[in-house]
TrEMBL record:
This is Putative atp hydrolysis coupled proton transport. It comes from Rhipicephalus pulchellus (Yellow backed tick). Residues 355-375, 487-539, 601-639 are annotated as: Disordered. It holds the Pfam family ARM_ARMC5. One of its GO terms (biological process) is anatomical structure morphogenesis. Gene3D superfamilies: Leucine-rich Repeat Variant, Potassium Channel Kv1.1, Chain A. Residues 862-922 form the BTB domain.
Length: 1042
């Protein structure tokens, strides 16, 4: 007989009406349907489920019918048939009415099997069967019955509606009680793991009050892997509730997590889930201490250094930020090389996002920008010509707050998707499969949105926040972290004592136990918690805290605050009237900044009525604010957080916040300059388009920090910065101008440190006691960061920095390597900074001459010819020459052969230089004679030689002045050589000083100095450089610019 025929006969017998026939048939059906899914499906198709439901509530049939139904409900088709025919209500009535344990046991198992689908669980919820299952669990029954009840609780807890019912009827406490029975531990802890999904405060408190934390502490050390996994799953879920995290930490939960993460051997929960749970504990100060003392900080740093754990970086950064007031923990993090680890990410980010940003800028304000930059360069002691630097005013620091607020990149960041990982259990089999524990991951998306106010807007919000609260009398939810409350706390507690960077964001417990000296409210005027997109936790969320989120989520953590509304709905409850009255009275008593501004603009008599009317409106008028006020609030809300380009930039901003913490401490042990951070941030700000503003703020702090100064100077970081400041060559490049603005600001900070007693001592120590490499870096850096001449004298002369600099020139003249070029640039910057502004040399001017006496030579008879080497002849008057010059008098009237010659051979010169001398001796001058004007430098140098030969000091002075006026790099070497040959010390040093201070590109300057130092006169050149520097550095003690 086929299975279908057999089952058909059995169904007919079940419905026959005879007890014995029906009961025997039910026994046969139970045998066939126990583990045969095909038989169950056929039985359903033949109407067997309907027949069973017709008999299940009859006491004689209940036991056998419930057994068959429970087995059949493991199949979806049978389960749907039971739900469709209302079988859940019948089973629930049996569970609540019949006292026989075996019947209740089968009824409980049947309901659990129905609840294996969400539809079945909702049906059980609607028929209010959850209460009876919890009652069955708490009743004195056998161990087998309790196992069945715990399984039902575990399955039902996978559905939010049923989980709420279970918590309402104290199922968590009942499960904790079952943990005390060793035979039930495995099933009870699995039920708890399911119950604590999206754990609510009520559920967590039930477990706590039933001493579940103490039992959980023991289970976290169990040897059974199934028990251990469920215990950690429960711990992970409970960790979401902030109110019980301190108690969990006291129950050694943190130590257990750290031990397991250090030697991870579990299958589930995953490593990332356990790690994110550990990070949650950093939100409470007492748990932060436990994390530090239990060795959890190395895990955070190791995760950041491990490329295979990138998905953990966001929650890791958030956790580290929570330690920003815990100085012992910061010391541990520093010793673990946290900053170098962050620097690796910064460099990788810079490498991946590097772009060529140079472009032409032909804006009409370009000339104005260049003049402003020139003024700024002079103020900072940086010569624009030497470095080819052109820039605008520094960083727009003069802008008003409201202008800056409107220019902050990005509006309110879009709601981020939160991926939630739920640790749950699900039955997939019959009674034999009840012992198995399975986890399923439900991926759910929840949008999170928080309001944040940047640092720029805090002042404006402080001014307007109090009156805004009184105007909005209908505001709904009141929270301790709400803008108005925090503003009041900030005003009452007084100004911040310093040491806190307001842009670090909000954290749930701002005061560390060892940091009582810091204010309770660390954000003066920051009227809202940080946005979750900034990588920090939101202090207030829905009453039910989702359990544990995916580590890849942009909002790694959420926490529950009991101060928030307990209503699950989205609607907000109105503020109690007594609360409004208290807040409004405090706001009226707080003096507002704008009231004092009014007093400056109007008389006291005019101001008093205005202020009184303003208080009256704040207390009685509930009308909406003015259009301008609404527009102002909208502007602030739209510019609360920067619009990040991607998740990597958001993570980078979090790392910058960590670095900001160390820059604010300014302690000797935190030498950020020694980590290479200076160079890494310079490359980031230069190479990455639209860099984060926080990076430049960190650079400002580092360059102002005394403890980082030595490392920055001794590592050559300043020289790398100078190289980055060199213009790209494109006219008006906006990128170059902006970067030079920042670089000048950093150099001015370094200058303030270098010219302090500490900074000059560091430089002197490096020059006198350190190795050759550090000495070289120090002497190359000094010209860029020291402007005070008294300090320069000590460093250059007493500490021999000048000798070291000249040695670099001499050693590198052959190779012309990078060190030689740096030495040339450094020397040029030094000479430019110490040079005095001199008025241009002018030749003696004569009155205007008529056209007839333009050249005096034409008035004389030409009776003498002087033939030079190039074959040309220069004519002159014999009498005039003998009368004007002793050289010609001796030659033409003495005992020489030239006395009787009309054509005299004149060797070792050329025609043009000799003609100049002849013109001069005939009375011509440079102002009136056309021939003598516009002479080339080479001709003037030949004239100087003739002046030395013929003893013409007057002409020599005139020519020397003109040579100085027409100096160029191309001819500077010839001028120096001729001046050295003729013994013209002043001209020689003037030519060399011109080379050192000329505003030109570094390459041409390098070539010219290399030619001078490499020549025969190289030693004299170095001596002249030393002499010029000594001479100028003693001229005036006050800093001067060119």
């Amino acid at each position: 007989m086929s299975l279908k025929s057999l089952l058909s006969d059995l169904v007919a017998k079940v419905t026959s009406g005879s007890f014995s026939t029906s009961f025997n048939a039910l026994v046969e059906v139970s045998k066939h349907c126990r583990k045969d899914s095909a038989a169950v499906s056929e039985f359903c198709a033949l109407g067997g489920i309907s027949a069973l439901l017709g008999l299940v509530e009859k006491p004689k049939y209940s036991d056998i019918c419930l057994s068959i139904l429970a087995n059949c409900c493991l199949i979806d088709k049978a389960r749907e048939e039971v739900i469709r025919r209302g079988g859940c209500r019948s089973i629930a009535r049996i569970l609540s009415c019949i006292e026989k344990e075996s019947v209740r046991n089968r009824a409980c198992r049947g309901l659990a099997n129905v609840a294996m689908t969400s539809r079945g669980a909702k049906e059980i919820h609607s028929c209010k069967a959850v209460e009876h299952i919890v009652t069955f669990l708490t009743s004195p029954t056998s161990c087998e019955s309790k196992v069945t009840a715990l399984r039902a609780v575990r399955i039902l807890a996978n559905t939010p509606e049923c989980r709420d019912d279970l918590v309402t009827f104290k199922a968590p406490a009942a499960a904790v009680k079952s943990l005390q029975n060793e035979a039930l531990q495995k099933h009870a802890v699995q039920a708890l793991a399911s119950l604590t999904q999206s754990c609510s405060l009520e559920c967590a408190l039930q477990i706590k009050e039933a001493d579940g934390f103490k039992i959980l502490e023991e289970l976290l050390q169990a040897s059974d892997s199934a028990v251990l996994e469920s215990a950690f799953a429960t711990l992970v879920n409970l960790s979401v509730v902030g109110d019980v995290r301190p108690d969990l930490g006291a129950a050694q939960a943190i130590s257990a997590l750290i031990r397991q993460l250090t030697d991870y051997k579990l299958v589930k929960p995953s490593y990332g889930t356990l790690f994110s749970s550990l990070c949650r504990y950093s939100q409470e100060s007492v748990n932060r201490v436990r994390i530090r003392e239990s060795g959890g900080l190395p895990l955070l740093v190791q995760a950041l250094a491990d490329q295979s754990k990138k998905e953990l970086w966001s929650c890791c950064v958030c956790a580290i930020l929570q330690f920003r007031y815990d100085e012992p923990s910061l010391a541990v993090l520093w010793s673990l090389d946290l900053v170098p680890t962050l620097l690796v990410y910064i460099r990788d980010y810079t490498k991946d996002h590097k772009e060529d940003q140079h472009s032409m800028d032909s804006s009409p304000n370009e000339m104005e920008d260049q003049s402003s930059s020139a003024a700024l360069g002079d103020a900072n002691g940086i010569d624009d010509g030497c470095l080819e630097l052109k820039s605008t005013v520094l960083g727009g620091s003069g802008e008003k707050d409201e202008d800056i607020a409107s220019d902050i990149a990005g509006n309110k960041s879009p709601g981020s998707h939160q991926v939630e990982l739920k640790v749950s259990t699900l039955d997939t089999g019959d009674e034999s499969a009840d012992q198995e524990n399975n986890y399923e991951c439900e991926m759910s998306e929840a949008k999170s949105e928080a309001t944040d106010y940047g640092d720029v807007t805090e002042e404006a919000l402080n001014e307007d926040g109090s009156s805004e609260l009184s105007r909005y009398a209908s505001k709904t939810t009141f929270c301790i972290h709400s803008p108005s409350y925090r503003e009041i706390e900030s005003q009452n507690s007084g100004p911040d004592v310093g040491g806190y960077c307001s842009d670090l964001g909000y954290h749930s417990n701002p005061v560390s136990p060892d940091q009582a000296r810091r204010p309770v409210s660390p954000l003066p005027g920051a009227l809202s918690p940080r946005s979750t997109d900034s990588g920090l936790w939101s202090p207030c969320s829905t009453p039910r805290c989702d359990s544990p989120v995916s580590v890849a989520s942009p909002e790694p953590f959420r926490s529950f605050s009991p101060i928030c509304s307990e209503n699950d709905s989205d609607s907000e409850q109105p503020i109690p009237s007594y609360v409004k009255n208290i807040v409004e009275s405090i706001c009226r008593d707080i003096p507002k900044k704008r009231e004092f501004i009014k007093r400056k603009r109007s008389s006291l008599c005019d101001d008093q009525p205005t202020k009184v009317s303003g208080h009256s409106r704040g207390a009685d008028d509930d009308s909406l604010p003015s259009r301008a006020k609404r527009r102002r609030r909208r502007t602030l809300s739209e510019s609360v957080t920067p619009a990040y380009k991607d998740s990597r930039e958001m993570l980078l901003d979090g790392m910058f916040k960590i670095l900001t913490v160390f820059t604010l401490l300014e302690m000797p042990e935190y030498k950020l300059g020694a980590t290479g951070l200076f160079d890494g941030l310079v490359r980031y700000l230069y190479d990455v388009p639209s860099p984060l503003q926080r990076a430049s703020q960190i650079m400002s702090k580092i360059t102002s920090d005394l403890h980082s100064f030595e490392e920055i100077v001794c590592r050559g970081d300043v020289l790398k910065l100078i190289e980055s400041m060199v213009a790209c060559g494109l006219k008006g490049c906006k990128h170059c101008k902006q970067f030079r603005d920042l670089a000048r600001h950093w150099l001015s900070n370094l200058t303030r440190v270098a010219e302090s007693g500490y900074g000059s001592g560091v430089l002197a120590h490096g020059l006198l006691t350190q190795g050759k490499e550090i000495q070289n870096w120090c002497c190359l850096t000094i010209p860029y960061v020291v402007r005070d001449k008294s300090i320069l004298r000590q460093l250059l002369l007493d500490c021999l920095a000048l000798n070291t600099l000249l040695d670099l020139l001499e050693e590198g003249k052959g190779a012309r390597d990078r060190m030689f070029r740096q030495a040339v640039d450094s020397l040029a910057t030094l000479c430019t900074s110490i040079s005095e502004k001199r008025s241009p040399l002018r030749t003696a001017s004569k009155g205007a001459s008529s056209a007839s006496d333009a050249c005096r030579l034409e008035a004389f008879a030409m009776d003498l010819q002087l033939q030079v080497d190039d074959g040309s002849k220069v004519t002159g008057n014999r009498h005039r020459l003998t009368e004007a010059n002793d050289y010609f008098r001796t030659m033409l009237e003495g005992h020489f052969v030239e006395k009787d010659q009309n054509v005299v051979a004149f060797r070792c010169t050329r025609g043009t230089p000799l003609s100049v001398v002849i013109h001069f001796l005939h009375g011509c001058d440079f102002q009136t004679c056309a021939f003598m004007s516009g002479l080339s430098v080479n001709v003037q140098l030949d004239v100087l030689r003739l002046c030395d030969l013929m003893l013409l000091p007057g002409l020599q002075r005139e020519i020397e002045v003109r040579v100085r006026q027409n100096l160029r790099l191309e001819s500077a070497c010839d001028v120096y050589s001729r001046a050295l040959e003729l013994g013209l010390t002043g001209l020689r040093k003037a030519a060399l000083w011109f080379v050192l201070t000329e505003k030109t590109d570094s390459e041409r300057q390098c070539e010219c100095l290399c030619e001078l130092v490499s020549g025969r006169q190289g030693g004299q050149v170095l001596d002249d450089i030393a002499s010029l520097v000594r001479q100028n550095v003693y001229v005036n003690d006050s800093p001067s610019t060119t």
